[in-house]
Structure formats: structure tokens, C-alpha cells
Specification:
The protein is mainly beta. It starts with 7 loop residues before the first helix and ends with a strand.
Length: about 600
């Protein structure tokens, strides 16, 4: 979150302007105000009938106007009971207890419990939070990071937040079900007391065990809580530039249920502390080892190339030299969310970064480079600047929503402060970009889908934060889940017309239950090759669907499925049927899965 204006005495001291935003009105907003009759469009909001009841609370009713209230919460995608249906986990946030004053009369910060909903099939869910042991609230929470850290075949959960992280092991409950047990202390993770915004899992050192990267935000506390205003009258959330950044952390998984904090030696602190909000692990060099990308708020975005060896994590920061740290003007943006896609049909991951108002969202095109990746800020070239600069971006996803054989781009927005200036609103529109694609599969540029066509979800401003896109029913249709600030989570059913189009889903696994972050999957159909990347983290403060989805257009056969596994193996299978999820194990013929609902 970036704010260019501070007013009143603080503004004088900091030398900042108090002028309102002069950003142009976006294409999407212009279309939404055109008077066009609402269209059902891409998504139907089925939250009311889904059984999902959860609201992330930031405690703003206490009128403390802290930067803590601005972030909101992410979401986690996991099949916690391994029944083949994805479940959903939402952090609860927190509140300020003014009746329980702390030092100096400041209110006590209390966490609110998360919500875990079990997928019953047919877009129906049941709240199982209490029955699985997740009803506790150790701190004011923001993010979710999911991984099978102990490799027992069941996904475990890490929550991030203010003053800590909490690790919950997924265990048998002795009655044929599952429960989560807080193992933070025994895993040697309880020393983390910073403001942890996001986290991501991935095997950095190639030993088969998922390691943990935690992105930290700023040094706010009630002892460091300046008063800020943007109009000279109303107190509001201070910008991140009012605070110092906090160093990020890396924890190496020892494989025995415990972790070593290797932050001081691995290279994550070779650069000054940033103000981390988003983190993603993905292989950007082609060596099958996950590299680390961190989206920082008003400081340089970071790109750590993975130089690790088994048992020893080594990261080299190359953000500036790689062209990833800043925008086309050479300015560090207020960055939040991260996503990747192969824009050029060359098998390389270009990166999308969501940014603050008065900035454009950043599309960083991967130009190549093995050990030294090179990126170019390409927002304007790909048509993404058409929406203007009045948005504050959070969740982001590349996904083939209509099975056309190319990935659309979805963005959700919502302001970080309570009283935006000028015409900028706190609730903002989601945006759907469709790509124009060349015969080779290369994306030429993106165009905004007009809200009149996109439908009601894209016509209604909301205070969005996280965005999950994935197949909840096993039918190939990609639905969406959106978290909001002080408003209920939204479940959106994909109701696109697919006509004669086809799809393929790929799930990577094996008997050792190892982590496959860093792997790359390619599908060739009708002469076009598409690439997807197995990532850790991503989006905003979230864990995304670990499976990979491909739209195939009118192709009902797969010429070749190629998997480059992160452990160095490569598999190829030819002449496969479309329209199913394939469970893929190294060296074994893919297993075709039946829909669960």
C-alpha cells in the first residue's frame, strides 16, 4: 500500500503533498456506469446457499486507525481430509480490546479464530473449525500457507499475522477423521515475533522436505503509532513510509518435525529489510529449483535466485539487475499480490504484481536468461494500463476461465485507507482481462472485458483482498473465492458457456509425498504448447490450488503431456483424452480421476 499524500503536521514534517489523486477514471468504471442492464456474466454469487459463513474482521470499529487494519486476510486451498474435494481455510483477523488496556493505555490486540469449511460436493460446505481443533486465535491473523511439511500425505497449515506464525499439524483424530494440532513450539517456530504478512512453502535445498519463507511487513506498534491524515481533518491509516521494514525469514525443514532459522546465513537478509506483503516460490531460471519472489510495499520487490545444495539453503538477490525490483520509471511500487503465466509460449514464467493507486499494476515479462533471469516491465505494452491508476490491487490470478486455450487475468481491488481522497472509493471493482492470442499461443495483449458482459460480480465495487481460482467440483470449471474486509467471503460459481471446448487438469504426487514446487508442466494440443508452473504461496497472503488446469479450446486430445519434476526427472505421455483430472506419478501412466460432485 502506497500513499503519496500525508496532511497536517505530519505532512509538513515529512514534506509530502496533500493533493488528491489525479488518476483517470478506469475503463471498467466507465462501462459500469453506462446504464447497461446487469448481465449474469461469468460468475454467479452462490455464497448464500454454499454454507460458507465467514467474515474477516480488522477491528476498525475501535477507531484506532492503525496500519494493522489495512491488510485484511488471505485464504487457503487444501484437501485436509484427502477425500478428493478441495476445502477452504480463512484467517479471522483481529480486534482491539479497549477494556483491556496495555502499556500506555493502548488497547489489547486480540486475534479472531479462522474458519475451515469442508467441501461436501455440489458447491456445498460445512464449517468444521471447532471439530478439527482450529478454533483458537493465537494472534491477529492475515495469511495462510499450506503444505505437507511432515510428508505424511495430509496437508498442514501455517497462519501468519501480527506478532507471530502458527503451525498446525494435520493428524488422525483416533475416530477415523482428522484434527489440527498447534505444533509451533515443538517445531521451533515460536521465536518468530515479527509482523508476518504472508508465507510460502517449497523445497529450497532439494532434500525433499518443504522449507518455509515468511515475508514480514513493518515495525508498527502502539508505541510507534503516528497520527496521519490525508485531508487535514480526519485521522486515517498511516502509509508504510511512516515505518521501517522488517527482515524476512527462511526456515529450513530438518525432516524430523523441526525447523532451523537460516535467515542470517542463507542470503535472505543480504539486502535491506523490505515491507513484504506477498511471497511466491517458483522456478524462474529453469533449473527446477524454486526461486523466491517477494512483493514489497513501497520498497524494491525482491527476486532471490536459488543457489542451494542439499542441506544448505543459499539465495542470491538479483531483483535490480533482473529488472523485477521497480516499475518502468525506476520507482519502487506499493506491491501486494503475485501471479505467474507463460505469456510468450516459451515456457518461462512472467510475473504479475498488484500495486497501489497512482501506480499501474506491474506485468514483468520474462525475457529469458538461465542463471540470470531478465524481466521487462510490460504493463503498457500488454494493454493493462487501460484501467487507469485509481485501483488498489490485492488478489490476482491467471486462469483459463472459458477453456479457450489461453489464460485470462483476474484482479480484485479495495482501498487500504478509510477515507480516500477525490473520486477514489474504498470499495472498488474487480476486473477481468481477456488475452488476444497469436496462432503460436503467444499472448499479444490483454483487453478489459466490459462489466456489461462480464456480469454482476464485475459491476459491483467491493473491498476485496484475496482471490482463489480453481476447480471445486472436479468438472474443470474454475470457480472463484474472494475474501473481503469486514464483509462475508464470496463463493462465485463459473457459469460460462463452454460449447464444444475442452480442458485438462494435472495433479502431481508420488508415494513419498514430497513437495513439487518448482516443477513445470506442459500440454501440447492442436500444435500449441501451454505451460503451467507449480508454485508455493502466490496471490495475496494465500495458498492456491496446487493442481494445474489447462483450457484446450476445441481440442479433445492431448498430443503430449510433459512434466519436468522438481527432483530432476522428466516424463512424457502422448495421445491422452481430454476433459478429466489426471493424477500423475513419476514414471507411471497418469490415472484418470472421476468427478467427486
Amino acid at each position: 500500500m502506497r500513499r503519496l499524500a500525508l496532511c497536517g503536521l505530519l505532512a509538513v514534517l515529512m514534506g509530502c503533498s496533500a493533493s488528491p489523486s489525479t488518476s483517470s477514471v478506469s475503463v471498467a468504471e466507465s462501462s459500469a456506469d453506462s446504464g447497461t442492464a446487469p448481465s449474469p456474466g461469468l460468475f454467479a454469487d452462490i455464497t448464500a446457499t454454499s454454507g460458507i459463513v465467514h467474515t474477516y474482521r480488522n477491528g476498525e470499529q475501535a477507531d484506532r486507525h492503525t496500519i494493522l487494519e489495512s491488510l485484511g486476510g488471505g485464504a487457503g486451498w487444501l484437501d485436509f481430509d484427502q477425500d478428493g474435494l478441495p476445502d477452504l481455510l480463512f484467517p479471522g483477523g483481529g480486534e482491539f480490546d479497549t477494556a483491556a488496556a496495555g502499556p500506555g493505555g493502548a488497547p489489547t490486540i486480540r486475534g479472531l479464530p479462522p474458519t475451515l469449511v469442508r467441501n461436501l460436493g455440489g458447491h456445498r460446505f460445512a464449517d468444521v473449525t471447532a471439530s478439527v481443533g482450529l478454533a483458537e486465535s493465537p494472534f491477529y491473523s492475515h495469511g495462510v500457507a499450506v503444505a505437507d511439511f511432515d510428508r505424511d500425505g495430509f496437508p498442514d497449515v501455517l497462519l501468519t499475522g501480527y506478532r507471530g506464525i502458527a503451525l498446525y499439524r494435520n493428524e488422525a483424530n483416533g475416530q477415523g477423521g482428522r484434527r489440527f494440532r498447534n505444533v509451533t513450539a515443538e517445531a521451533k517456530l515460536s521465536a518468530n515475533q515479527g509482523w508476518s504478512a504472508s508465507a510460502a512453502w517449497g523445497d529450497l535445498d532439494g532434500d525433499g522436505w518443504p522449507d518455509l519463507v515468511v515475508a514480514h511487513y513493518v515495525d508498527w506498534s502502539f508505541a510507534n503509532d503516528p497520527k496521519c491524515s490525508y485531508d487535514g481533518k480526519l485521522r486515517d491509516v498511516c502509509p508504510p513510509k511512516s515505518f521501517n521494514g522488517l527482515p524476512d525469514q527462511v526456515f529450513r525443514n530438518r525432516g524430523d518435525g523441526t525447523f532451523d532459522d537460516v535467515s542470517a546465513t542463507c542470503g535472505i537478509r543480504s539486502v535491506p529489510p523490505g515491507k513484504g506483503l506477498g511471497v511466491m516460490l517458483v522456478d524462474v531460471t529453469g533449473d527446477r529449483h524454486p526461486d523466491v519472489l517477494i512483493a514489497n510495499d513501497t520498497t524494491d520487490n525482491l527476486l532471490f535466485v536459488n543457489r542451494s545444495q542439499p542441506g544448505s539453503i543459499r539465495l542470491e538477490e538479483v531483483g535490480i539487475s533482473a529488472g523485477f525490483a521497480r516499475d518502468a520509471r525506476g520507482v519502487a511500487n506499493g506491491s501486494m499480490g503475485l501471479a505467474v503465466a507463460d505469456l510468450d509460449a516459451n515456457g518461462l514464467p512472467s510475473v504479475m504484481v498488484t500495486n497501489y493507486e497512482n501506480e499501474s499494476h506491474g506485468l514483468y515479462r520474462h525475457l529469458g536468461g538461465e542463471s540470470r533471469p531478465q524481466y521487462r516491465f510490460s504493463t503498457l505494452a500488454y494493454g493493462l494500463a487501460a484501467i487507469g491508476q485509481s485501483y488498489v490491487g490485492w488478489g490476482v490470478s491467471f486462469a483459463d476461465l472459458e477453456w479457450q486455450g489461453r489464460e485470462d487475468l483476474l484482479l480484485v481491488h479495495g482501498h487500504a485507507i478509510r477515507f480516500p481522497l477525490g473520486t477514489t472509493k474504498r470499495a472498488q471493482l474487480p476486473i477481468w482481462f481477456r488475452p488476444e492470442i497469436e496462432p503460436t499461443g503467444k499472448i499479444r495483449r490483454y483487453g478489459v472485458v466490459p462489466p456489461s458482459e462480464a456480469g454482476r460480480f464485475f459491476q459491483t465495487p467491493i473491498q476485496a483482498r484475496a482471490l482463489l481460482v480453481g476447480d471445486l467440483t472436479g468438472t474443470g470449471r474454475l470457480d472463484a473465492v474472494v475474501t473481503r474486509l469486514n464483509a462475508p467471503v464470496m463463493l462465485l460459481r463459473n457459469q460460462a458457456t463452454f460449447a464444444d471446448r475442452h480442458w485438462l487438469g494435472v495433479e502431481l504426487t508420488d508415494s513419498s509425498e514430497r513437495d513439487w514446487v518448482g516443477s513445470r508442466v506442459q500440454v501440447r494440443a492442436n500444435g500449441v504448447t501451454q505451460t503451467r508452473f507449480v508454485i508455493g504461496g502466490g496471490g495475496f497472503a494465500s495458498s492456491l490450488d496446487p493442481r494445474l488446469h489447462f483450457g484446450l479450446g476445441r481440442s479433445d486430445r492431448i498430443d503430449e503431456l510433459r512434466i519436468e519434476w522438481s527432483d530432476g526427472r522428466t516424463d512424457r505421455w502422448q495421445n491422452l483424452s481430454a476433459d478429466a483430472w489426471l493424477r500423475c506419478v513419476p514414471g507411471t501412466e497418469p490415472q484418470r480421476l472421476s468427478p467427486k460432485s
